[in-house]
């Protein structure tokens, strides 16, 4: 849980001011997929974080704990979409070795392209920032 809170703090700081939707998709070792989503509002003057739905955020945070720990997760991807004009902006990270690592923007672009004949908003993809990793010396080494 400590690592998850550190990851979320680094993520919120990297995303900065604005309205963000965080999606996490996890491929578990039992061949099931789980998804969590939370909407956040981040302000910088003064610093504030508002969560639209506490239950959604709690579910996302719990799923992220399992993704970072890695023993029951094969693969996990986190995508952040930021409200922007004229199009929302998106960046993504994969979970490896207990941390979030930036995704290749071309790979993410393929994942967020709306399907034909589906009403969806086009998202402009950009390079995800590298999140500073501050290891906890008292923590076990992650398995995933």
Task: List segments where confidence is low: pLDDT < 50 over at least 5 consecutive residues.
Answer: none
- The number of helical runs is 3
Classify the secondary structure makeup into a structural class.
alpha+beta
Strand content: 35-45%
- What's the SSE pattern? HEEEHEEEHE
State the helical fraction: 25-40%
3D architecture notes:
With 144 residues, this protein is α+β, with helices and mostly antiparallel strands. It has three helices and seven strands. The two termini are 15 Å apart. The model has no long low-confidence stretch (mean pLDDT 89).
What's the arrangement of secondary structure elements?
Layout: H1 2-15, E1 18-28, E2 33-44, E3 47-51, H2 54-69, E4 73-82, E5 89-96, E6 99-102, H3 105-112, E7 124-125
Parallel strand pairs: 5-7
Antiparallel strand pairs: 1-2, 1-4, 2-3, 4-5, 5-6
Helix pairs in contact: 1-2
Short description:
With 144 residues, the protein is α+β, with helices and mostly antiparallel strands. Helix content is 26%, strand content 36%.
Question: What attributes does this structure have?
Answer:
36% strand, 3 helices, 144 residues
């Amino acid at each position: 849980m400590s690592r998850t809170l550190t990851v979320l703090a680094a993520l919120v700081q990297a995303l900065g001011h604005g309205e963000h939707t965080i999606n996490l998709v996890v491929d578990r070792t039992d061949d099931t997929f789980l998804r969590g989503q939370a909407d956040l509002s981040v302000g910088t003057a003064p610093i504030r974080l508002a969560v639209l739905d506490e239950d959604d955020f709690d579910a996302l945070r719990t799923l992220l704990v399992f993704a970072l720990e890695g023993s029951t997760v094969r693969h996990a991807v986190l995508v952040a979409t930021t409200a922007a004009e004229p199009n929302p902006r998106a960046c993504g990270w994969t979970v490896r070795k207990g941390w979030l690592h930036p995704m290749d923007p071309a790979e993410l672009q393929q994942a967020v392209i709306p399907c034909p004949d589906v009403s969806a908003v086009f998202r402009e993809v950009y390079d995800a920032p590298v999140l500073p990793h501050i290891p906890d010396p008292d923590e076990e080494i992650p398995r995933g």
